[in-house]
Design brief:
Elements: H1 9-15, H2 24-30, H3 36-45, H4 68-81, H5 97-107, H6 110-126, H7 142-153, H8 157-175, H9 190-194
Helix pairs in contact: 3-6, 4-5, 4-7, 4-8, 5-8
Length: 210
């Protein structure tokens, strides 16, 4: 099957868009900056409940940009969002997903990196008081974690934004690796084959067009 015939081609190309081009304007659009104070206060209010067994697990060698909490959050998100076991997909254990996320984090501007870190802490800790049995996201079982993502995808703008950003990091970090392409019969980005230059992010729609 050619790349033009592959049903996974469009999705794989979309997920491979570089996260290093995330801008302050995009995060303003998502509402993360406007929610920074709320996120910090919420994370602080969970201080007593937020301890987790995973906190004792050391961060893997080579991780330079992810804090311990972010590392554990993405490690759990990868398990939930990329259930490759028993499928034809490339096993997630054979792809450097966490290392790729760590690298992409390092490419973000410092102010965006700080604000995103606050949002990730909110996502992890909010599960404590969101009807998920007093546990952080990193401690939820598979089905509860899937339900948590689904709930945030239907939530207010801040929740939807964080849900989208976490998924984009995870999916991009997986699908950017060429070894993940053969099982879905994807031949690679046509921009490479055709020698097309990357033109950057498309402009955001106006509110009346969203």
């Amino acid at each position: 099957m050619s790349s033009s015939e592959s049903p996974a081609r469009t999705e794989a190309v979309r997920q491979a868009a570089p996260l290093s081009r995330l801008t302050r304007r995009r995060f303003l659009r998502y509402g993360l900056i406007g929610s920074a104070a709320l996120a910090a206060a919420a994370a602080g209010s969970f201080a007593i409940l937020r301890r987790s067994p995973v906190d004792a697990i050391p961060v893997a060698e080579g991780i330079r940009n992810l804090g311990a909490g972010e590392y554990h959050l993405f490690r759990r998100a990868i398990e939930v969002l990329l259930p490759t076991a028993g499928t034809a997909l490339t096993p997630v254990e054979e792809v450097p997903v966490l290392a790729n996320i760590d690298h992409m984090m390092g490419l973000l501007p410092a102010h965006v990196r700080q604000e995103l870190g606050t949002g990730l802490a909110l996502f992890d800790n909010a599960a404590v008081v969101s009807g998920f049995h007093g546990r952080r996201f990193v401690d939820l079982d598979d089905q509860a974690a899937v339900d948590y993502f689904d709930a945030w995808s239907r939530g207010h703008s801040i929740q939807r934004a964080l849900n989208t950003v976490i998924k984009q990091f995870v999916y991009t970090a997986y699908w950017r690796e060429p070894e993940t392409w053969p099982p879905v019969e994807f031949d690679g980005p046509v921009s490479d084959d055709w020698g097309l230059d990357y033109l950057g992010n498309a402009p955001l729609p106006r509110e009346d067009q969203a």
